[in-house]
Amino acid sequence: MSRSARTASRCPDRCTVDDARCRSAGRPARTHARTKNAMRAASATHRRRRRDGRRRRAMPATSDVVCVLVLWCVRGTKTRSERELRPGNMEAFVQIPVNSSFFQQNVKLNLRQKSLGAPRARVARSVTLRMRSWGVRPGGVEKFADELVETANKIASPGRGILAVDESTKTIGKRLATIGVENTETHRRGYRELLFTCQGLGEYISGAILYEETLYQSTRDGRPFVDCLRNIGVIPGIKVDKGLAPLPGAALAHETWCTGLDGLSERAAAYYAQGARFAKWRAVIQIAPGGPTRQAIFENCYGLARYARTVQDQGLVPIIEPEVLLDGDHTIERCAEVQEEVYSILYNLCQQQGVFLEGSLLKPSMTLPGADSKQQVKPDVIAEMTVRTLERTIPAAVPGIMFLSGGMTEEEATINLNALNSRPRKGPWALSFSYGRALQQSCLKSWMGKDENVRAAQEALLARARANSKASLGKYVPGSEPTLDVTGTFEAGYKY
Question: Rounded CA gap, 331 and 336, in Å?
Fold first, then answer.
């Protein structure tokens, strides 16, 4: 019988009994319709009761139970019994212990038991994750979400900042040369050992950015540096970019982009296994006649966004560093204009790449006139312009903004940070520091490469860390802590 013939023989009320059998039973059409509707209602009630009963069943709470969240696409066919689950249509697969805080706080399941080719199969029909409301896309971030937030908030905790010790082998050689010390592995390790074994440093420093060599180094007696940092309350971090390179096709010859995305995911996983819990990537924007070009801004911001999402998938909090260099004679107003454009593009790209902002930090430069500018500005003006720029562009979800020193003297960097935290602001983020040269200059000059000077060098480091800790709370009194840095360390076209 053809399909059209079968359709014609059906009851006008669309029942499963053909029209001839309805008439032979002497069943009026109206009565038959009422009977059919009553059967439908009874069936729906039965299905609802069975579903509600399953919802009330307690889920096991033993520590070894793992909840497998599978977001499936179910292919619908003619009848309900013919539906199939296709593993090829799986969108995400996450294993989470049922009794973990992540599961209890973030996951809500509505389980329905069906016969899907396997007896007593349980399928997650609906999954609600808190990260969905945060805008996090499926990937590795789900596994580390709680840890990323916790690490970012610890680093940006009140009164603490970051010690940047991520100079490359070539750059640390320049630092050692200023005190007449040869650039050898022994001297590099000896200097960093005095930093990482400084008792009391964790009271003012929450994190330390390391170079790859340093992450795998140990003290003379064999203690890994990452363990030394943890023992004094400092979280180890790692510089993951591979440095600056000329930007292909750039309209201006001096414009660069940051390299290192190739193999970043694998390296980030290895750094996490070694003990690092956050990462840093530095991109550089330079103000010059005709620049920065839109191409340079976009390429550097895109690299920052891709880096941030990549390391988050491996458990590292990304420190995003779009440094606008002090090179040039531009005014503070021009600096603010460029920074607003850069930060706006940056966070738009971060949103596109699915960066988890609550588990990230920003490391910008302060809003300053160029190093060759004749414009004289006071710390209050610097603070006003910097805060205004941040309020216009930085999302409130970012927990902390850790400023770089950019070649300012130790005291100048501290005073400007204090001014930032002495004025009211709309933004909820912590304003703190991630200083390298502005924390280490007095320390280096006190050490001079001699073992007998280690304690004096550590005292100099503690003095500047304490000064910036007070400044991050708006409580620093200029000149209250000693410094041996009176000239600053500005270097045109600075590269790590």
Answer: 9
Say if strands 161-165 and 430-435 run parallel, antiparallel, or are unpaired.
Answer: parallel
User: Given this model, what pLDDT does residue 111 score?
Assistant: 37
Annotate 416-435 with b (16+ C-beta within 10 A) or e (fewer): bbbbbbeeebeeebbbbbbb
How many residues can be counted in the chain? 496
Catalytic, 78? Answer no
Sign of CA dihedral 186, 187, 192, 197: positive
CA distances to 81, 124, 137, 314, 379 from 111, rounded to whole Å, are 18, 5, 23, 30, 59
Residue 479 domain-assigned (yes or no) = no
Instruction: Give the number of other CB atoms < 10 A from CB of residue 391.
Output: 13
Q: What would the two tokens of residue 438 be?
A: 């502005």
The Cα 369–Cα 417 span in angstroms is: 16
d(CA 353, CA 462): 39
115 with 211, same domain: the answer is no
Residue 146 in any domain: the answer is: yes
Assign 410 to helix, strand or coil. helix
Q: Please give the angle made by the CA atoms of 454, 164 and 279, to the nearest 5 degrees.
A: 135
Which band of pLDDT confidence, cut at 50, 70 and 90, is reported for residue 80? very low
β-strand partners of 278: 237, 317
Give me the CATH number covering residue 321.
3.20.20.70
Q: Which of 287, 209, 250 is nearest to 493 (CA)?
A: 287
> Rounded mean pLDDT of 65-93?
36
Question: Is the residue at 70 inside a domain?
Answer: yes
Please name the amino acid found at residue 454: V
Residues 232 and 300 in one domain: yes
- Strand, coil or helix: what is 208? strand
278-285 vs 317-324, strand pairing mode: parallel
Instruction: Give the separation between CA 32 and CA 22, rounded to whole angstroms.
Output: 8
Q: Are 98 and 66 in contact (CB under 8 A)?
A: yes
Residues 125 and 149 in one domain: no
- State the pLDDT at residue 77: 36
Q: Which of 154, 239, 280, 363 is catalytic?
A: 363
Rounded to whole angstroms, the Cα distance separating 454 from 460 reads: 10
Note the pLDDT tens digit of each residue in 202-231.
999 999 999 999 999 999 999 999 999 999
For residue 386, what pLDDT band results from cuts at 50, 70 and 90? very high
Domain-embedded: residue 80: yes
Q: How far apart are CA 137 and CA 129, in angstroms?
A: 11
Catalytic position from the list 142, 193, 321, 323: 321
Is 363 among the catalytic positions? yes
Enter the pTM of the model: 0.73
Give the pLDDT score at 495: 54
Between 64 and 382, residue with greater pLDDT: 382
Task: Give me the domain span that covers residue 25.
Answer: 3-55
**What is the count of structural domains for the chain?**
3
Return the C-alpha torsion angle 213, 218, 224, 226, nearest 10: -40
